């Protein structure tokens, strides 16, 4: 009898831990969507005061230094030691930091590209990640109904941000292509990191990737003729780069790398679908922008897309709740 009770307690403990992990991941996912969703406004605001690539480089100078200090504080040895660990850092620096942000910031600098059009292009990241994973990570493939969920989520993003068709179709095509290339670089880098058979503490990976990416972007900035004399320091400029550095970058990527290890590249990049929702809420709270019917409909479509993608997880959660309820009723 004692062994039975012990086993039952072990099952309850494992179930409780599993539930805790699921809710922890959900909370972190929503926080990531919040800080990344609100970053489009900060990027657009700061581009009035900084050259685009230099703006991105300074952002990651600050974020990288902050995260390196944090890594030294929480880790016994924050320096990558093996070839595989440095390859992880290199992939993060080149694709997730330098390529993605250089292309995104240059694209958004174009006046014809609105925050809405940039958001809708970046939201293609989960679809692009799925395409890369189908080639590079067979275990990460989605079934047809899951792919339908991705497409449905993208439709919801389109309804939510309501991009001006004239901006997408007749504005500077190069700027939109640059933002698309940014999303592709991020998706490719995410899958490539997952494929690499190496591990590194999140804090160390984030810090060194940011500093390496910042160094690369400073080189790009010089190569394209940007100059520090193009920076105009104002309260708004400092607030924009401070928010992007500390919240969208340091905190955001710390959460991102944590969830990447827990969820895989396809699920974590679904944050691109949720981020525009938080952008709409932030606009309502801080910019007095109304939440329209289109916003509500777009959100519901996104929820439907998530339901298709996560249908098995939802089914397991519902069954678990039913089992718990029945057990409590029997008691």
TrEMBL record:
Organism field: Halocatena marina
Entry annotated with the keyword Iron-sulfur: no
Membrane topology: Multi-pass membrane protein
Transmembrane helix among keywords: yes
SUPFAM superfamilies: Multidrug resistance efflux transporter EmrE
Transmembrane segments: 26-47, 53-75, 87-106, 112-133, 145-161, 173-193, 205-225, 237-256, 268-287, 293-309
One GO cellular component, as annotated: membrane
PANTHER family: EAMA DOMAIN-CONTAINING PROTEIN, INNER MEMBRANE TRANSPORTER
Domain EamA residues, every copy: 26-161, 175-309
Matches recorded under InterPro entries: AA-Vitamin_Transporters (IPR050638), EamA_dom (IPR000620), EmrE-like (IPR037185)
Stated name of the protein: DMT family transporter
Keywords linked to the UniProt accession: Membrane, Transmembrane, Transmembrane helix
Major localization class: membrane
Subcellular location: Membrane
